[in-house]
Specification:
Number of strands: 5
Radius of gyration: 15 Å
Helix content: 10-25%
Number of helices: 4
Largest sheet: 3 strands, antiparallel
Shape: globular
Length: 150
Amino acid sequence: MSELRNQETATPETSDLDDAELLGFEHIETSPVSSASTEDAVGLALNKRGLSGEGPPTSDQRLKTHVNRAGETAEGLNLYSFRYVGEDREFRGVMAQELLADERHRGAVEVGADGYYRVHYARLGLASLATNEMHAAGERAARRAGALAH
C-alpha cells in the first residue's frame, strides 16, 4: 500500500518521491550499529505519535479512495472529497502528502506509530473539517490497512 492509491491526484513534483524525499530528509543516514531506519528518523523529526486514537485525524492519501479535487482554500490549499478505505461516508479535507511537499505546511503533519500521516487541521485554519466522524473513520481505515499488511 505504499504506492499512491489515486495517481491522478499526485502532482508531477511529488508522485515520484518517497517519504524521506518529500520531507526533505533524504540526507538522513543511519549507521550500521543503529537500529533506527530512515523512516523512524523521519517519524521522530515529525513528532511521531502512538496508536492511542488521540491527536489529529488520519489524512494519509494511502487510506483514501474516491478522491476528487473539490476546490481550494483562500490560502491556496487544495481541498478534496474522499472516502476512507472501507467506509461509505464522504469527507472533505486535505492530503497530508501535499502538505509535506510545501514547507509552509509541514508543521501541520505528523506520523503515527502505524506509519500513516495525520494532519492538525486547526494549524491550517480548517478545524471545522476535522470532525469526530472523520477521526473515527480514518482510524478504522488505518487499522484495516494494518491488518492487511500483516
